[in-house]
Amino acid sequence: MPKVKKIFSSLIFNFSFLISFAQTNLVINPSFENYSGCPTSTAGEVNKAIGWDTCRSSSDYFNVCGAVTDIQIPKNLLGFQNPANGNAYCGFCTYSSSQFYRELIVGQLTSPLVVSQKYYISFKVSRADSNMFIGYSSNKTGVKFTKVKQSYVTINNTAHYYSNTVITDTINWTKIFGSFVSDSAYQYLMIGNFFDDANTTTFNHGNGVVAYYYIDEVCISIDSSFTENYATDINILSIEDDLNVFPNPADGFFNVDGLIGNEIKIFNLFGEEVFKSEIKNKSFSIVC
Questions:
Q1: DSSP assignments along 168-192, one per residue
Q2: Residues with Cβ < 8 Å from 252, sequence gap 6 or more?
Q3: What's the pLDDT at 19?
Q4: ∠ CA 114-120-125, rounded to 5°
Q5: Would you say 50 and 108 are in contact if contact means Cβ atoms under 8 Å apart?
Q6: Which of 68, 164, 171 is closest to 126 using CA atoms?
Q7: From the CB of residue 61, how many other CB atoms can be counted at a distance below 10 Å?
Q8: What mean pLDDT do residues 271-281 have?
Q9: Residue range 255-263: average pLDDT?
């Protein structure tokens, strides 16, 4: 089983802090827990989850701290679902019967993939169940990797990995798991349906016009067992509970107390790593 990961956010310098015991998962913010701001609408606010953004069309970010019911958890505009773990997940449309329409999310990796290396992929999806909007389920949800971040991609019936299973379950989270051999030093991954309607199998549930899925716990790793069994164990830490960061606010220098034995990585709001260090002492200082 994967070791415990703890994620917390601080307003200091608008940095987000990722403290982990192991960096086996190459996905930044794999469960969308670390965020720059709470979502306020279903208007493509995936970029509020650190390291993630919407691609092609308006995918959605759901969080318990959502400003309105539409993007809250567990009940929201698209249905009812608790996170696979933690307090957040994303969602996207994989099919529409009224027009050709796809939504994708794009995420950053902690480091580029290595050419000729075999990687394992896993993520969890659950079909949304709003009677007003959701009338279909579909297959072909998968992953495509790119070297640069893209805001729009052409649907051309290719993906590095995809599932042929039509996922209908609205109660449980279904894990999609597979592998591929990297042919380039990819730095980003996109998730969604990259196939057109003619190459997508759907099931009509008799209500709305779209197939829509929540997604959580994304993992990319060279370890098959780790990836297949990946399940984040996340706590959102308050400064008062587990550690002390001071002074707050600060001006280029601050101290952290209470994290001995861990590794700290600091990412800016663009998901870029700006600091990394193994914590050998209970108290240490960071200069930015």
A1: --SSSPEEEEEEEE--S---EEEEE
A2: 287, 288
A3: 39
A4: 130
A5: no
A6: 171
A7: 29
A8: 66
A9: 63
Give the C-alpha distances (Å, rounded to integers) separating 128 from 32, 104, 137, 169, 188: 18, 16, 9, 9, 26
Taking only the tens place, the pLDDT of each residue in 20-31 is: 334 489 999 999
Count Cβ atoms below 10 Å from residue 252 Cβ, excluding itself: 8
pLDDT in tens, 86-125: 999 999 999 999 999 999 999 999 999 999 999 999 999 9
DSSP element (H, E) containing 227: helix 224-228
Q: 91 has which bridge partners? A: 60, 214
Give the three-class secondary structure for 46: helix
**Lookup: tokens for 153:** 């991609």
Q: Say if residue 40 is exposed, middle or buried (CB neighbours under 10 Å; 0-12, 13-18, 19+).
A: middle
Q: How far apart are CA 110 and CA 201, in angstroms?
A: 34
Helix and strand counts by DSSP (H, E) for the chain: 2, 21
